[in-house]
Structure formats: C-alpha cells, structure tokens
Amino acid sequence: MGTNSFIGQMQTDGAIRGIYCNWDGFVECTGYMLVRHYENRDKVAELLNLGELSFLGSAPNDGTCAYARDGGETLEPATLFHDLDDVLRIKRDYFYVQMHNGWIYSRGEDWKPVPQPPPIVESL
Hints:
Number of helices: 4
Strand content: 25-35%
Low-confidence stretches: none
Helix content: 10-25%
Order of helices and strands: EEHHEEHEHEEE
Radius of gyration: 14 Å
Mean pLDDT: 95
Number of strands: 8
Number of domains: 1
Largest sheet: 6 strands, mixed
Strand order of the largest sheet: 5-2-1-6-7-8
C-alpha cells in the first residue's frame, strides 16, 4: 500500500489547486523532490495539468507517472480548494502546497515548511 499525498499550488486569489499522488508521499521522498526540482511555479502548474499521479519524478516529463498520460486512464484533473483548511478536509497521508515563497507540508494538522533535503553525495 502506498503512502499517498496531495500536491498543490496556491493561486493568486488564495485558492489551492492540487492533485493526488499515490506513492512515496513522505517528506524524505516527495517533499525533498518538490523542494529540489519544483521551485518554478510554471513547472508545478505543468505537473498539476497531468492530473492524478502514480508517482512523482524530477520533472513532469522525467520519471513522473501520470495515470491518464502514462496509464491510459481517464484524466482526473486538479481540484480547486478554497484555502489550506479546505485542503485538509480530504483524506491523504501527506499534504504539500507550493506557496508564493516555497513549499509547506502537513500530516493533517499544522502546516510547516518542507525541510531542505540533505546534499546529494556522489559516489566514487
């Protein structure tokens, strides 16, 4: 069974647009991936346009598996929520939202900044 997550983006009016992601929703995977590879708001919007995800890769077209695009399933488009409290009314293991100044996350209660991932160490 996967550790699912919600991946969303705050819009200019304060609403949150977001999608479901089935696998590896914990901070050390999805959270770090978002901080490392999804700083650009346009890139996040492109990701959200894919609809529901099986798993998140380093770019919408690099390692990301979308149910509609890659699995031939019916597109389940991004959902619009009124605000952060509205997002927490759905059932997910982790919630991630790109604010205007970075990523925050929740386990269903308080929102916190996604921690910076440790540096990537290249093996010899």
